[in-house]
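Re: your question from the hallway

Yes, I did run it. Sequences:
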Amino acid sequence: MEEKELLEKIRENVISGRIDQEDEGLEGDMEGQPGVTELVEQAIENKISADKILSEAINPGMEEVGKRYENGDFLIPDMLAAAECVGEATKILKPLLLENAAEGKGKFILATVEGDLHDIGKNIVSTIVTGAGFDITDLGVGVKAEKIVEAVKNSGAKYLGLSALLTTTMGRMQEVIEMLEKEGLRQQVKVLVGGAPVTAEYAKKIGADIYCDDAFDAIHKLEKT
Amino acid sequence: MARGFKADRRDFLNKEQCRLLHENSCRLLAETGIELEQGRAVDIFTGAGASYEQGRVKIPARLVEDTLTRINKNFSLKGAVPENNLNISAENPVSYFGTGGQALNVLDYKDGSFCKREAVGSDLVNIIKICEELDNVDYITRPVEPDVARERIDIEKTKIFQANTRKHINLANLVVKEKLPEILKLVKDKELISFISCVPVSPLKLEKNTAEKFIDIVNNDIAVAISSCPQAGMTAPLSEPGELLQVNTELLAAIILANLIKPGARVMYRGIPITSNLHLDNSPRWSQPDSIKRVAAITSMTYFYGVPCCGTCAVADEKEPNAQNISEKILSWTMELASGAQYINSALGMMEQVMTVSPEQYIIDDMLITMLKEAFTAAAGLENRDLRQIVTATAAKGFSALGAVCNDEITAEINKRLDFIFTEREAYNRESLEKQLLLIQKAVLSGKSSAVFMRKSRAGLRKGFLYAGNRISGKLDLQNIIKKKDNILNKG
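Structure:
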């Protein structure tokens, strides 16, 4: 396959959210055809640079997905699948990008707070934020404030995402923010909060930096910081 | 007069479809197993012949089949007076309507509009008082929790129920396991109460701490509805056969556990296979036609097994009482009643995807259920055309009683929703269920099940698995409803 054609195929498959050949695609009829991971590996074999794969195939693909989502042509699973493709492609390209000293967008710690075992929203944020180029460390669900603060301290993360789905657990977000203050880490890290009961007013009240409606809102707001 | 409504019923799944779902559930239980942390429940399973590998209980088909022979098909629940007793029976089914919970918010009606606020203890008292007076509330599930410390919730709500109702009490969840003996001491007769246990967590998991409470409830021979509520596209396959396969597997595991704890345990099968709003925000779609269809269909599995059914319906997705809200509820009640569910939960008062209740909504729902029962009684049968007639007639009467008009546009939208329910989009055959089984296995074993289910949902969304219709708009005249509510609450 010619370089131009291969890059175009990668872009198309990012748009279709097809990680690999097992994926059936948007219409359910693409199983068996190479997906993003196979195509990226082929591109590397063909000596196409990692920078080029990213800038001419993957990023334009994801930009197109964003546009289609905003237009209402794409739905949440389409966006998620595309972001997963970007995450997987990034994993393959990362060693090559490091050789060329390309930088990611920064370390991002993510957790559902103590007492709350809900992980669906958090997992979506994890996938989308990874796909957008952030280096995610997902601490999981029901995470104590001490553990979250320790992770921020040890990693030097620039971003911290906190999730809660219950009115009874959202108060734990404030505990984390207060503990960050106490440990002198508050200025180092931007705190993003979200979850069904959380509102912009609540985020402001507890001193969070960014309130996120959903994963995509998080990306939009992160891009503006 | 004895409580309950006896109507004809119909199976939304035929026997062959049920058999295929059961066979594939047995395969999932034996091959993939159920995730469960070490504890008493694991010991009970392994003591009966199940294996435990890498945190998953694998239940052989023979153990499933043997245990199913011990299912309790009939049991009674009591109210404080004999006329409020309920006979729960998979063999001689009678349908009972109850309320649901747990809502976090209550709507107050002030100056012509609704204001939402957090629920407090006095709301529990007021709602129970209202439900005590309503003819179509056959039992009361706690709608909101009392606002007391966690350790006191169980006892406080039991006392509030005892002081305000003579109907059967569903305490819903047991908050603190150690409080069960005290609850039993208060109520004196275990048949006066029942519980709901959300011990299955989708996909294919039993939650250890909930299982601990479940074991104590079953050991004490208290009736309990075992609840599994996956959201298609998020925590289960978007495909209808796939989601039904998964919910049936989860409930089967918990029913086996109950009957291993105590053969003939007084349990009800409560399958709530709803869908997710994958178009917008992943929120649950409780009362959209796709969810209504699936919830009615799963009732057929309870008749296949001969296990009593706790149905769940009429949790409107709307945020307040309005025309769309009542159109959702009427469609949902109709299908659930037609399915033959016996202990119908969440039927009154509930909206905003179980987040909110409104005192006015209980009274509206009671009125509409009266109309619905009349329409069922007048119907010639339960064929599609009969159900269409029941829904449209109840909607017309209900809208009219609430000062609104069920015009041609609204009737067309209601018929469109019915068309969706009556249309088969997917095959229930050996091949399609095998595909769904493999998807569930892949999702469960990948450790990122929601991403697997969402990815797989893209094609289904494009094939129209989620209903996309129009919202029915229109305000209701609630003067008579408010008057009735005030009369009840002012009785003291």
